[in-house]
Amino acid sequence: MIILSRIKIHVPFMDEETVISLKAGDRVLLSGTIYTARDAAHKRMAEQLEQRKDLPFDIKNQVIYYVGPTPAKPDKVIGSAGPTTSGRMDKYTPSLLDCGLKGMIGKGYRSQDVIDSIVKNKAVYFGAIGGSGALVARTIKKVEMVAYEDLGTEAIRKMVVEDFPAVVINDSEGNDWYEQAKEQFSR
Q: Where do the domains of the chain lie, and which CATH numbers do they carry?
């Protein structure tokens, strides 16, 4: 049996050194506070930035999880909470990174504009395993509504997570684990 090591990371990121130390392909366990936001919430945040209004939470050093969780069962804090496709947030992501966002969690590839902005802003993109929403939900210990409640599952929530599993897909140097893996396994 092969045991893969995981890097334990506390979020929100308290220093840039932690972000810079992460490399594409690193397996991590995130613990601390993350925020949820999907397409509609990203659109609203972008509109607020255009209007020079404050965002609904202090985005500096934060991590956003692209998820639309299902309702919680009576004895749980959340229902299934698997990642959604990150590319749908790509047109909004560079402006959020410019405001201090340091991490994103989702699934799938990011555009070159987002990767360039990740490098410029010394940030990181994590991949979570799609199809494992019920398992991921076990790492979520607390959930609190933050903004845009009218958006339902796409509202912004604050989550406290413990050992949330993810993989670094795009690191602060622009490396792409998807591309590296393709090269490695096509030999």
A: 7-185 (3.20.130.10)
